[in-house]
Please model this.
Amino acid sequence: MERTMQLSQRAMNYPASGIRKMFDLAIQYPDAVKLTVGEPNFDTPAYIKEAAKKAIDEGQTHYAPNAGMFELRQAIAEKYHHYWDGYTMDHVMISVGAMEGLTLSMMLLLDPGDEILVPDPCFPNYFGQACLAGATAVPVPTYEAYDYRIQAADIERAITPRTKALLLNSPCNPTGAVLTKEDILAIAEVVKKHDLWVLSDEPYDSIIYDGVEPFSIAQLPEVRDRVFVLNSFSKSYAMTGWRVGYLLAPEASYVKKMAQLQEGIASCVSTFSQVAAAEALKRTDCVDQMVADYTRRRDILVDGLNAIPGITCKKPAGSFYAFPNIKAFGKTSQAFAEELLEHAGVVVIPGSAFGDMGEGYLRLVFANSDENLKEAVRRIGAYVAKAYPDLK
Ligand SMILES: Cc1ncc(COP(=O)(O)O)c(C=O)c1O
Model:
């Protein structure tokens, strides 16, 4: 009998990662300096690891409630009272990283055929997450001239009758852009006018520099009823492998619905990871220390890149990503990234992996040692001086 089985359209349409391509190429260059992986280079702070070990020894090894453990949800609700003092445990859902929180909230809010606006360039997983919900992520261009901060007018231009939601990501991966209160006030007007849901993806909210105060659209009472906040312990507490994220919904009934979806996806987040996450929240000194180190590393990398002819790089206001402009080299960002890998021994991600607006840029991660960052700058500088002697 002829075989007629087929994979689902959803699986077939799921976009491949442009980031992985550089990882795969880099395997052939074991001595290359890798500025690619978007995670802290710090180990998880000791007091958090101790809490997990203790939780395991005490038998916290069973299923947890679908929406997450009460103590952790309670602690998160309290942490967000400066956004809205109405948040309670019932507005909080624990997810498998912010990643699953994004997927769950898109599944909650989007139907097949719906569109969700995302910044361009952006974290490429938003496209796959929208695809899982049967929806489409539609890029909204962001510009270097505005420090890559998404502008209300550009959002409004991208709206169609099918637009149902807007995704904001501040501080932004890959650009480090941090939205100002003025940006957000203007965006809130558009959101109200066009009746959109908002997903505010904020996993880098504590990795922010130069005294900049992050401001979230969830802090605006006039749009709060449409805003979901996504966050996680991954970046702030160096806990990427623990897979603990969370979301705050404007109504408890939304969390109840997502908890039902969670039952069929992961059931719950690892119990002892949740206990450790609750312990993590009791302190912020370790976060402050990591941010002090990131600040120094940002300056090593960005100042170093700006001293290389042909490269210009704005200082990111948040996150641990630098997003230099390499248009002067007249190459696609993929071609230039491959050149740096082959001839300079430095692995970076081409900006085009994050969207069309990323063409002409590279993403470099400065969550790395001072020595590696200095060596990367030295190698790129030496290569550019040799290969592009006419650039000043
Ligand atoms: C912008 C952004 N959102 C969400 C995530 C998901 O992080 P996690 O699932 O580890 O919380 C990441 C991770 O790189 C990210 O960069």
Remarks:
- The mean pLDDT is 96.
- The radius of gyration is 21 Å.
